[in-house]
Amino acid sequence: MRIFGKVRHRPSASWRQATDRAFTLIGDGRYEDASALLTRAADLEPWLSESWFNLALLHKFRHDWEQARAAGLRAVALLDRDAGAPDWWNVGIAATALQDWPLARRAWQAYGLKVPSDGSPSAPPVGMELGSAAVRLSPEGEAEVVWGRRLDPARMEVLSIPLPSSGRRWGEVVLHDGVPHGERTTAAGPSYPVFDEIELWAPSPVPTWVVMLEAATEADRDALERLAADAGFAAEDWSSSVRLLCRMCSESRMPSDEGEGERHLDPHDHSEPGHPGPLGHRTEGELWVPERECGIAAPPGLVRGLLDGWAADSPDTREWRDLEEVC
Question: Residue 59 gets which letter from DSSP?
Answer without folding.
Answer: H
